[in-house]
Amino acid sequence: MHYSQAITLKDLRAIAQKKLPRSVFGFIDGAANDERTLRDNEGDFATMRFAPRFMVDVSQRSQAVEVLGEKFNSPMIFGPTGLAGILWPEGDLAIARATQAMGVGFCQSTNSNCSIEQLANRARSEFWFQLYIQKDRAFSRSLIQRAWNAGARVLVVTIDLPVPGPRERDLRTGFTVPPRIGLDNIFDYASKIGWLLRLATGPKFTFGNLDNPDAPSRKFTTLAQHVSSSFDASVTWNDLDWIRKEWEGKLAVKGILRADDAKRAQDHGADAVIVSNHGGRQLDSSPSAIAALPAIVDAVGNKTTVLMDGGIRRGGDIVKAMAMGANACLIGRAGLYGLASGGQPGVERAIAILQQEIDIVQALLGVPDITKIDRSALFEAYK
Q: Which of 90, 121, 262, 354 could crosslink 296 through cysteines, CB 3.0-4.6 Å?
């Protein structure tokens, strides 16, 4: 199947699985330990039921939103996903261009394979930047300054990765950074000739934001080595105070699962909290993002923007999250499935699928304006 024939995100996932080596697909598709939280992220959406209201004029429908001062055609921000260049040459730029073309948001990862400056100059006029606080605070400050100078006006600080979660699927498949071809996987890699040719002829694999052009490139074999080498496990809320002083724009904190932590983020100057369990890739048996969402919405009230990240596989999932109080949703794996399926056009196909599904759900639910939705749109037992 060609990406243009995909009807659902599940179709795009199947195409991606066929096109990628087993270890590379496992990297984007897998999670920590037994992957319970990954399954719950999707499964808990499946238990929720809508309460449609009929005899409502839905001839004109809008899914446009404004989030942290930026307007989007749909309530989607494609979230920070590192190492997209493993899936497609200049993968980060492909995602950024697709989201720009389709009028939805994009957040660049610290671990992007392209630099902040490359993104700004070659792909998007507006973008968010995601920061992992580095052990070298001066380097963290330089990333913040570079993002601002490049035009980013929203900084997303991810707080749920003091140490890397145990990605056991990656250990079993032998995933490395960059991918290594050896006797144990040569037949699998050789069967993905299109991917191999793109990898061989594309730009050299780098960490665009972390490699210093005046020093030797950092060499890592595993993502765990990269995290332990660079990220700071001693980070506390005091560091958020420091970032708040350094950053002039809107500040979002990603990785919130508790109402009291949401309040702390609010008290320390966050303009937004992002309800997220890192796609199930950190602490397995954490609650799903949608299960954690209602208490956090209730805790912060309307003073703080609430976004949700995790488990979005249908446009209806986005509608459910917004009914529970989210202002928009971050999209992760859905974009990567599209990228692996066909580069920028594949990502655009993923966005179009979600947008069409949102539109149909709005019409059948009796909600012409997505920003007016509330918990009354959900069946009582699932609120």
A: 262
**To 5 degrees, how large is the angle CA 161–CA 162–CA 164?**
60
Task: With CA atoms as reference, report the closest residue to 93 among 76, 114, 109, 116.
Answer: 114
CB 120 within 8 A of CB 151: yes
Structural domains present in the chain: 3-382 (3.20.20.70)
> Average pLDDT in the 250-273 region?
98
Task: Name the nearest CA neighbour of 375 among 51, 43, 40.
Answer: 51
- The alpha carbon of residue 16 and the mean position of all alpha carbons in its chain are separated, in whole angstroms, by 17
Q: Mark out the alpha helices in 87-180 (DSSP H runs).
A: 91-102, 116-122, 137-150, 168-173
99 contacts 71 by C-beta, under 8 angstroms: no
CA distance 307 to 290: 11
Distance CA(132)–CA(217), nearest Å, equals 19
Model pTM score = 0.94
Secondary structure of 280-331 as H, E, C letters: HCCCCCCCCHHHHHHHHHHHHHHHCEEEEECCCCCHHHHHHHHHCCCCEEEE
Torsion of CA 128, 131, 136, 137, to 10 degrees: 70
Name residue, tokens 């990765």.
161
Give SS3 for 155. strand
Contact at 8 Å (CB) between 35 and 348? no
CB burial of residue 260 (10 Å; 0-12, 13-18, 19+): exposed
pLDDT tens sequence across 145-191: 999 999 999 999 999 999 989 999 999 988 888 777 777 778 888 88
**From the CB of residue 14, how many other CB atoms can be counted at a distance below 10 Å?**
15
Catalytic residues: 278
